[in-house]
Amino acid sequence: MKYRRLGKTELEVSVVGIGTWQFGGEWGIQFDQKDVDSILDKGKELGINLIDTAECYGDHLSESLIGDYLSRRKREDWIVATKFGHHFHERFTRTDVFGAKEVLEQLDKSLKALRTDYIDIYQFHSGPDAVFDNDELWTVLDKQKQAGKIRHLGTSIGNNDNLHQTDASTKVGSEVIQVVYNRLDRVPEQRVFPSCERQDLGVFARVPLASGYLSGKYKPGAVFDSTDVRHRHDPEATRRKLEEVERIAQTEVPEGVDMAQWALAWCLRHPAVTAVIPGCKNPAQVEANAAAVQL
């Protein structure tokens, strides 16, 4: 494994992390504790130290599975990033919750679910500018940092060209930007990444495999089950993406190289990117993701 400094946080994070949206049950598979233990143990074995989760991956379900695991392992071995701003109701249904008082309640629920006294990176989760620009929210979060419940603040921008929230990071005390970035979506290169570099912000590239389309496993016309979040994607857009993936596989991926590993390494080539946080369904996928560092 290789490690990079996470911007001004000075944390050293593995360049490949473990994304855990799938633990919440919206990617067509239900995970039990044994499944999660095996995935995270494989990550630890391979030198991965970064877990990214959120309050709304299930109703703190992903956090609870991770917390059970952490309660039986060395907490300090892991850098845990979670998020705030949404309340999960049922599969694919959430409401925004960004009021300062409500966020404090979410924070305590996340700490309880994760079975920890502190969160390494607490991220504003894809909210609109109007609620991001609430000084009371950031003042309350800074007090939680002073109390030791949060080590660092971050912002997971919903629009991957959201320069407003990125540029305001230093002002509000956010030290990490999480953004959609992959070979099919290079928008952050234009404005977001230069802003991150100017401010010395850490960058997590989420959806680095473009919701699995860049894994090379799917062909144009692929159909996803109704329990899979990709079932909700526009069919025509999905078809175009998968046609582009076929072209990339033929013209850009070196012969004999696994496309998913290539796609992760492609993200990590950009100097602004600290780490990629791909999801994984089993230990074999964790191992395959980690192997991207060899490229």
From TrEMBL:
The entry's keywords: Oxidoreductase
Highest rank taxon of the organism: Bacteria
GO molecular function terms noted in the UniProt entry: oxidoreductase activity
Keyword Iron: no
Every NADP-dependent oxidoreductase domain range: 16-293
Protein name, UniProt field: Aldo/keto reductase
Species: Paenibacillus apis
Lineage: Bacteria, Bacillati, Bacillota, Bacilli, Bacillales
